[in-house]
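yo, Aconitate hydratase is done. seq:
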Amino acid sequence: MGYTIAQKIIKNHLLSGEMTVGSEIGLRIDQTLTQDATGTMAYLEFEAMGVPRVKTEKSVAYIDHNTLQTGFENADDHRFIQTVAKKHGIYFSRPGNGICHQVHLERFGIPGKTLIGSDSHTPTGGGIGMLAMGAGGLDVAVAMGGGAYYINMPKMVKINLTGRLQPWVSAKDVILEVLRRLTVKGGVGKIIEYAGEGVKTLTVPMRATITNMGAELGATTSIFPSDEVTREFLKAQGREQDYTPLASDADAVYDETLDIDLSKLAPMAACPHSPDNVKTIEEIGPRKIDQVCIGSCTNSSYLDLMRVASILKGKTVHPDVSLSIAPGSKQVYNMLAQNGALADLIAAGARILECACGPCIGMGQSPNSKGISLRTFNRNFEGRSGTADGQIYLVSPETAAVSALTGVFTDPRTLGAEVEIPQPEHFLINDNMVVAPASEEEAASVEVLRGPNIKEFPATKALEDTIQAKALLKVGDNISTDHIMPAGAKILPYRSNIPYLSNFCFTVCDKEFPERCRQEGKGIVIGGSNYGQGSSREHAALVPLYLGVKAVIVKSFARIHCANLANAGILPLVFKDESVYGKIDQMDELEITNLREAIQKGGAITVKDVTKGFTFETEAVLTQRQRDIVLDGGLLNYTREHQA
Ligand code: MIC
Ligand code: SF4
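structure:
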């Protein structure tokens, strides 16, 4: 039997386990990346592990999220990351160099290698045939130290692409179609591989847009073959030596197959407040809009922005629309500046931002109240834009640009003949914003600089035998980590300050939650399906831990968040019978006894609803290794014990 692309890479990197669907496998990790919002914590954890130098082939620390420096906090964090990177063998991509996923694709990614990143959009690397996955910071720290990265062997899904996109229809529309069909939970436990004749018609940046937003499917990762298109891209990046061809075997077996005829797709938008709430632009109709934001790791490549520039050239942004544009990297920015396209964007009235995440994570450009904002980003969860009642639609750069001119939702196909923008033969290569680490000899004398914003990692204890606590919060389906631990300009600077962050935990859903936790001292959270979707931020586990959350009982979990809970020592439990969810009310007193033995043994865990006087069964979604982690009180304790 042949192998899929992902199975081949897994096989080459398998350190433990068997490649049977659902069972835990340990993978050797070749490359890691961090960004600043998750990086401070990841490096504190790495330091706590006591490994002097990273053991990966390449580890890169990016600064791209917290670049609004409204106080000392962000700048202090940048300095901490820069010095800690220098000391421990990590390349440092300075603020101004661009968004981690875009830069990594351009300058560091290699087909066939494994990459984990403390950011959920790490699968962007799948655009050049990497097995690239998002992970919690602690998992990245362990991988930097040479440890395996553990996942459950995913199912393999093939998306067979045929035909060719119509003019003005773009990669964003492809992934929106996949989201429309599969939904935000459709990818859980799966790797999505793109195949078929249609693949050849997609450039690397287009492929990367598609694998990037595979994160919104909940997929473990998404991957394209590495082919001539990949080789051309790497060559244009001066990295032809990094190319290796990669394809699935003719007799590879997939668990599911989906067919998409590219020529049938139309421009689409993901409507508020979920990336799978997809409609065509035509269906939405010419509704008035207030804002357009172009950029983010999904759609900020040179080709994307050149298309935007070609649409805006010689025109003026509609008087009622604010248009902001953030190029994805210094390479993109600089090339636009050199060829004059930047001048076209400026002349049209675009507000040009630095190359960083910016508005995507609520760092500025929050829309007006009830404002309709068209964004080329990947997430439109409620409140994420920084405006509680903002109405965020996710669209392609083409739809965004033309709508910015007309002031209403506009199908870019109304533009007439498409302007052909070829991939440049040579991208502009200048890695002067990447700082190499100190040599092994020099490393000892590098001082790690810590500002007052860096607080201790919350202490965890071995799992107690009895949990008796109230259901301090009950939430519904598809709760994202943006609900659990919001980001945005006011909160993001405190990613290394768990006590401060705790004031905002779940406040999108319930303003009183942090206070209730403080009063009660401990608690349990009840949730629906796909709990913890979205970001990889481990703060969505560490902050509840700090607030005394002992267990989370839900219908189902999103992959990264579930691992983060276990890593933090919080019990992730799922209802055996989902209908029990309806019987529990917020503030019910719950009790779990003989817990340690139950976790050790595996099998059902019985929970008593003391208030209502009934019991129900749950299951801990943990592998044997994770059971030990939870028993020890989290991965940091576990790693320390195992090292000892
Ligand atoms: C996001 O897009 O939500 C983020 C911000 O990039 C996160 C990481 C974080 O919360 O710092 C992600 O996608 O993992
Ligand atoms: Fe940054 Fe947005 Fe991409 Fe997250 S999704 S890495 S915030 S650009």
